[in-house]
Prior knowledge:
The structure holds 3 protein chains of 3 kinds.
Chain A lengths: L5 E5 L3 H13 L4 E5 L30 H6 L2 E4 L4 E5 L4 E4 L4 E3 L2 E4 L3 E3 L18 H10 L5 E5 L3 H12 L3 E5 L15 H11 L2 E3 L4 E6 L7 E5 L4 E4 L1 E4 L3 E3 L15 E3 L10 E3 L4 E5 L4 E3 L4 H15 L15 E2 L5 E2 L7
Parallel strand pairs in A: 1-2, 1-7, 2-3, 7-18, 9-10, 9-15, 10-11, 17-19
Antiparallel strand pairs in A: 4-5, 5-6, 8-16, 12-13, 13-14, 19-20, 21-22
Chain B lengths: L6 E9 L4 H14 L3 E7 L9 E9 L10 E6 L2 H4 L6 E10 L21 E5 L1 H9 L5 H12 L4 H11 L5 H20 L19 E5 H11 L4 E4 L6 H13 L3 E4 L3 H13 L4 E5 L1 H16 L4 E9 L5 E5 L4 H6 L8 E3 L4 H18 L2 E7 H5 E6 L47 E3 L13 H16 L10 E5 L4 E7 L3 H14 L4 E6 L1 E3 L3 H10 E8 L5 H10 L4 E4 L8 H19 L1
Parallel strand pairs in B: 1-4, 4-5, 5-6, 8-9, 8-10, 10-11, 11-14, 13-14, 18-19, 18-21, 21-22
Antiparallel strand pairs in B: 1-3, 2-3, 2-15, 7-15, 11-12, 13-20, 17-19
Helix pairs in contact in B: 1-5, 3-4, 3-6, 4-6, 5-6, 7-8, 7-12, 9-10, 15-18
Chain C lengths: L10 H11 L18 H15 L6 E5 L7 H4 L3 E4 L5 H11 L4 E7 H7 L4 H6 L5 E6 L2 E2 L5 E2 L23 H7 L4 E6 L3 H13 L4 E6 L12 H7 L1 E2 L9 H10 L6 E7 L5 H13 L1
Parallel strand pairs in C: 1-2, 1-3, 3-4, 4-8, 7-8, 9-10
Antiparallel strand pairs in C: 5-6, 7-10
Amino acid sequence: MSTPLHYVIIGNGMAGNAAAAVLREHDPECRITIISAGALLFYNRYDLPNVFRGTESWVDLLVHPPEYYERNRITVRRKSPVIDVDSKRQVLVLAHREELHYDRLLLATGGEPYLPEKLKDSRPLMHNFGTYRAAMTMRAALPDGGRVAMLGGDVMGLDLARALIETGHQVSVVTDERTFWPHEVDDQERPRYYEALERMGIEVRDQGEVDRIVEGAAGMPARHITFACGEDLYADVVMPFFGIAPNVDFMSNSGADMERGILVDGHLKSSSENIWAAGDVSQIWSPKSKSYRFYYGYRNVRRMGETAALNMCGEAVEFDTNDDDVIEIDEAGRIQSPFWEHD
Amino acid sequence: MATHDTDVQISICGSAGDGTIAAGDLLKQAMAHAGYRVIAFNTYPAEIRGFGKCIARTRISTEQVYSMKPRSDVLISLNDAHAIPHVGEVRDYGSVIYESAPITRLAEGQHISGHVRPGQLPYGLPLRELSERATGSNRSRNMVALGFLAGLYAMPREVFHAAIKAKFKTKPKAVSEATIAAFEAGLEVGAQTHRFDLVELGEPPESLPGNVQILSGNAAVAKGCIEGGLDNYFGYPITPATTIMERLAHDLPVHGKRMLQTEDEIAAISGAVGAGFAGARAATATSGPGLALMGEMLGLGVMAEVPCVIFVSQRGGPSTGLPTKTEQSDLNIAVHGGAGDAKRIVLAPTNVEGCWRCAGKAFEMAEAYQTPVIVLLDLYLSNRFESVNFDPDENFNLSIPRGKPKHRPGESFRRYQVTDSGVSPRSVPGEADGLHPATGLEHDEFGHPSYEADVHTAMSKKRHDKLNKALKHPAITISKRFGDTGKVDVGILAWGSTFGEGLEAMMLARKEGIRCAAMKVVMLSPLPEAEISAFMDDCDEVLVPELNFEGQFANLVSGTLGRPLHRLNEVTGHPMSVSAILDQVRALAAHNARNAA
Amino acid sequence: MQAELKEPVYLEDKLKEVRSSGRLDYRSEVLPTWCPGCGYFSIAEGIAEALTALKIPQKDAVVVSGIGCASRFPFFMETYGFHTLHGRALPVATGIKLANDDLHVLVVGGDGDCFAIGGGHIPHAARRNVDLTYLLFDNGIYGLTKGQTSPTSSVGFTTKTTPFHNHDQPLNPLLMLLSYGASWVGQAYAGRPHHLAEMIRQAMAHRGFSYLHILSPCVTFDKTDLTYKNMDLLVRDLPENYDPSDHRAAMQWAAKAGHEHPSLGLFFSEEHPTLSDNMNDIVARATA
């Protein structure tokens, strides 16, 4: 009886968990370890706006209950950042100095919210929303009926905006080239889309560069934004929504080719032996556009995870998606984005 | 359970040198003085020294509880190799706290974070580093971890500081200061850590009135002995009774009394019988193997009607058995041991407070009924800590008036006079007009050997009848019923520490709609037949859970009353689990319902 | 060894003397169950004389025994008494003494009771210097159970349990007690009742653990070894210049003693703190 293969997945998001499910289905004997830097089991980030719709506990957000992982014998190591990958010895090193050997490795570390350089100093005054903790912190900071200023306004931010407006809060979007990210809306189309945002109840501030963000004075909302053009915007919470940048710091020793993300072929395989990548961290070769490109969105990320897993098991499956990452305005004048459908 | 109710069990697991037990001690002292009810139990390595595993478990609650929980809410690992096998003990959405920065590289599986179950929440922090920064050495990792726990769960730091200062009050001030520094270093990190687990530590209840102390069963026995007027203690070391002797070795001389470590158990019980004969309040403590040795001398105490008290803390048997595991398998020899019809008084407390009460009352009862009294504990109860409210009890240390020696001119003193109650007048050496021989031979009223049929019959009757009065002895609870009154589906009839688990099972059963009651029986000999009978009258089914193989108490009850009952027997070396009893209760209730349908 | 010829002693005079001495007060009305000629009768007399001479109140005297012919003693004494278990007289007596320092505790027992089943208790009573008097009635046999070999029986002694031969080397009680640190060790003989009475008195007067080994023939079950006839010829006194404070000399004499050449008299005596003294010392330390 041969030793079961050890599949290691770095990243506890949609891609990683979809891959784990497929791996278990295909290989009942193998060992599967998911490694996460965070404390919680997999919950759907895209459902975080529900904290404004009655969700009180992260337990309600879990995609799978704990016993799912026990039943499927999937080890989920949490609070275990990876600090090094030695692709020659096929060994990972965790921050607490434990070394894991892998037979097949999947990188599914996703991305961090991207923050433009010029706003880095203002980070302490801003709230993120990408994790449960960030979401609860932001919710606590926002008074009833308060106003959120969203800088940029990518589709995740706009999804949150819908929930905020629904629950009686106010939203201003400070536009930028990354508004509607990852969709690309050319300049000619933009005014129509801004109008659609306004029809949603969002205040659109298309006023150019942000000059400063400071704490509000006593008696005023907590944040005060001044634009280069001289205009002001007062809000209770300021949030950056400039899209995502891949998490690849620890991969420097891996020998895998990288650009902004991990470069993979159509089978999601990296240039490094026994290493695959899926999800927001991966850039997949597109023969059509003759370039490595990202695919975003719940369904794409899940499909990438599943495809990578099949390939890791020895099948040869091309990543294929029908999901257009196209943003539209429907007949009712509402913005529709495939990224807002997460079922 | 209401949201404000607290019921949190914290397990600290480490190697013998990690200060595991010390951390557990400080935690329970602090929490008891914060006003929570505390019950705690430590497990020690089987071997004395070296690198064995220790686990200190502490259950903190607002409502009174009666047992340890099989699942803990929090596990602190001071040594991953030891703690990893116990990760499964932590419930879903509970916490696992551990060292995040080990000094050596680890192979896969050697760090506890890889064993944390999917439903549990991990909290790592650099214990060693924080300890070294706060105190200059790594020996205070346990205090850093304790501080982290306190910070994470917003426990009041003052009670910990007070407990640390009290512990080190005989050492230089620098020791408690360094310890507090390590504690605070951990607390700071804990307070800033975002908590994802679902463990809720609410406010403590209104301060418990009176004088609250946290004591082990053995310590409570020693306290009861001192307050009950113990004059002379004779003892021989045996696990798990040794600490009773060690405490009394200190406390008795402090009170001007005497303690002697003898050459064996037979000498110990002999000394107690001798001192009792001479009019002193005397005691010894042992475990099953020692009680077996004491059998003959116990019989002498019964036959010669000499008062003395024997504490027996039961452990795994038979023979040398399992010295560090708990069991309830010495009931038979406690009640029946020794040659002949040697009936004596046997008491079995069910919790730490009961250990104190039974110890205090035992001396009084030994003198009142002129007989050895056995107080039966078990290892779990001996070593379990509970927060107890020790209000001063004026009922202890009653001085029983001895019948005035009647001197009929020309006649010797009738030390063994047959009376209505069965209790004879008693003189002790040093008293004029009371001269008599005491003997293990059957004897007449003067104490002289006699083998006549009518003498043996009358004396046997006297020795048995006098004990019945013990059933009505004042200020001691010999049996008590809890739970539903009137008719019930299932009655739990239990003794010793297992009663605690039985009581909790009863409460859970009632919540599920089963009509359930529980009765604790504290006096095993003489057996409170009327009370047990009345209880069994009310129960459709009776369950007797106990930690021995065949059901020694079940045998005693069914042998005496001749009524059917169900047995639940375990000999795992561990306390019975509440769920094991509850499962049986459910099964009996369901069976009952089917039969009724 | 021969007594000098004295004036004739008349029975009535002797009775008058005995009755007025007061020592009968210490004897109960129960008739002893010993065989006629048993050495224990002399011992009983000796104890009564000693108690009289020392003026010990009856209420303060406790006679503690084990099991055996000797063990019946408490019933024959008009004092407090405790007839305990085979081999357990010493630890019970220790308990009695610890409970009340004012009591005079007298422990009696035979060679089987003391050295067979009771052997484990002697070293501790001796080394703790419990202030009691231990009278050991050595008849080299188990009499009550009708004649079995005991730890002091001679090699070659035939009994019901050694019908062919006894190979076991007998113990040397005096040597043992000396090595256990007993603070008073003496030997007497039931065939020399006056000397015996005096030794008992000295033993009781000693403050500390006193051990008096008394050779006492069993007239019923031993017709060959420890008999009056043999003992009368073998016993002798310790030499004139014998120094009972010399422990090493005592042990050398004890090594030479035994049933072959038993020496009578005080082998060793010294005073040091008793168990009660030491208990009081501990209380003083604890309450300082």
